[in-house]
Write a structure and sequence with these properties.
By secondary structure, the protein is α+β, with helices and mostly antiparallel strands. It folds into 2 domains: about 1-135; about 145-289, Immunoglobulin-like. About 20% of the residues lie in helices and about 35% in strands. The chain has helices at about 1-20, 25-35, 50-60, 75-90, 100-105, 110-115; strands spanning about 40-45, 65-70, 90-95, 115-125, 130-135, 145-150, 155-165, 180-190, 200-205, 215-220, 235-245, 250-260, 270, 275, 280-289. It has a 6-stranded antiparallel β-sheet with strand order 11-8-7-6-13-14, with no helix packed on it. The protein has a 5-stranded mixed β-sheet with strand order 2-1-3-5-4, with helices on both faces. Helix 2 (about 25-35) packs across helix 3 (about 50-60) and helix 4 (about 75-90) crosses helix 6 (about 110-115).
């Protein structure tokens, strides 16, 4: 009787952990990646109740794991309080999205994180999406006015009203370290309704004619405010994070941003004070020690 009850469970777990046919959801790879860049102040959030057992098999030490949400259906007030508690005591978050259509069908957790943190990485491991966030208070106002204008093929204009970076990032003499996350809030506005969807790129270049060693590309507001949904005249605060890889050499790097078509990758031309700037806009220099 006992064997008949427990054997199916044993077989399922054995397949999950040891049968390569079941490795589509690569929790082993996620655990190894998180461990490879681990630092004090990290936390892991799992979305969906079954993840904690599957991921916990491979992640047995290091960053604390917080399963969310605590209830079904999700209680927004309780979940927001839980997220706030995690972010107040941690600097970086690794969030495993799987089964969120059932656990969090309104994407409350992701929307909360897109508003209150800076997404730096979004990678699929099989059917599990691992997102990395920097925890910091997002900007609510522009620190550096811009006025740069990006022109679409149809003649519409997307204006970068300005941006805000942590004060130390571009300050002379201050530095960042590998593993740090550059946090930037871009303030966008359009003059007319847009038919196309555009991704924002935030790139860190060692040389402008070489591929960037660090970058973050994504639709505005973590994908929750695509440009074809923008209201003309409304300003959108758009948080981005760029993870400085652990193998990046020390030196000076140029921070540049731009927009490109989601479907064909065509970048939009940009002008600043009436001067053509090409297809990307330089914001300043970052020093990595």
């Amino acid at each position: 009787m006992g064997f008949g009850i427990f054997y199916p469970t044993y077989l399922s777990l054995n397949n999950l952990y040891f049968n390569p046919a079941y490795f589509r959801d690569d929790y082993r790879g996620i655990a190894r990646y998180v461990e490879s860049i681990a630092r004090p102040g990290d936390a892991i959030i799992t979305i969906a109740p079954n993840q904690i057992e599957a991921f916990g098999y491979y992640h047995r030490s290091g960053a604390e794991v917080f399963p969310l949400p605590h209830t079904r259906p999700l209680d927004q007030a309780e979940t927001a309080a839980a997220l706030a508690d995690v972010t107040v005591t941690h600097d970086r978050l690794f969030v495993l999205y799987w089964g969120d259509e059932q656990a969090d069908p309104d994407h409350f957790v992701e929307d909360w994180l897109n508003t209150n943190t800076f997404k730096a990485r979004d990678v699929w491991y099989g059917q599990v999406r691992l997102a990395t966030y920097a925890v910091a208070a997002p900007a609510t106002k522009i620190a550096t006015p811009s006025g740069a204008r990006f022109t679409t093929p149809s003649g519409s204009t997307i204006t970068l009203n300005g941006y805000t970076l942590p004060s130390h990032v571009l300050a002379p003499g201050d530095t960042m370290s590998p593993g740090d996350i550059v946090q930037i809030t871009l303030f966008w506005q359009t003059d007319t309704a847009l038919e196309e969807r555009y991704k924002v790129f935030v790139h860190v270049y060692a040389a402008p004619d070489q591929p960037p060693p660090a970058q973050q590309d994504g639709e505005p507001v973590g994908g929750r405010a695509p440009t074809d949904s923008w209201e003309p005249g409304r300003e959108y605060a758009d948080n981005h994070g760029v993870l400085i890889p652990t193998d990046v050499p020390a030196g000076n790097y140029t921070l540049m941003i731009g927009l490109y078509n989601l479907f064909d990758g065509t970048r939009l031309p940009v002008t600043l004070n009436g001067e053509a700037m090409g297809d990307r806009l330089e914001l300043g220099t970052i020093t990595v020690k």
